[in-house]
Amino acid sequence: xxxxxxxxxxxxxxxxxxxxxxxxxxxxxKYSQRPTEATITFSRDAHQFLCDAVVHLSTGLxxxxxxxxxxxxxxFEACREKMDKQLRRYKRRLKDHHKDRTEPVEFGEAGLYVxxxxxxxxxxxxxxxxPIIIAEMESRVPTLSVGDAVMQMELAGAPxxxxxxxxxxxxxxxxxxxxxxxxxxxxxxxx
Length: 191
Fold this sequence. Notes:
- GO terms for molecular function: ribosomal small subunit binding.
- The chain has helices at 14-31, 72-89, 91-100, 146-156, and strands spanning 2-7, 35-45, 48-57, 62-69, 107-115, 123-125, 128-130, 133-144, 160-165, 171-176, 182-185.
- It is α+β, with helices and mostly antiparallel strands and 191 residues long.
- Strands 5-8-9-10-11 form a five-stranded mixed beta sheet. Strands 1-2-3-4 form a four-stranded mixed beta sheet.
- Helix 1 (14-31) packs parallel to helix 2 (72-89).
- 24% of the residues are buried.
């Protein structure tokens, strides 16, 4: 597995890097046979150290976790424990995912736009007020089953996931509802 360990205004020494590679490597390999890349970033927020970890699996799934503590090693351990808990929860599904999927998850390209939140600066068009685009980026939309999309959303710690449904190719959304359940939006034009 390829590691990228960095710090935002923090010097990440060799001892911390070695500790992260050993511990995170053991955690991820225990649940997933084929991790490919891990990015770990340490930063500070007032008196606390933060550790953000993103691990890419060879199947295209991404696992994310964040830890915070008063010491840098403790922030990493909190992050690693969260990732371990996520991977343990999905251990069976991850192993089944490896068996059923011989090819990595397919991704389609999509535009991602950031719109101005200030309605006072929106442009007046003939059809009404149009929001101002303040940033344009490329995004990737995975092709997944609904179950895999929910798993990916939770592994990534995201509030929602836009994906292309494997069964019919339509764009779908899964999201975490306020009541704690998961919502699934499937806007197929059924008449």
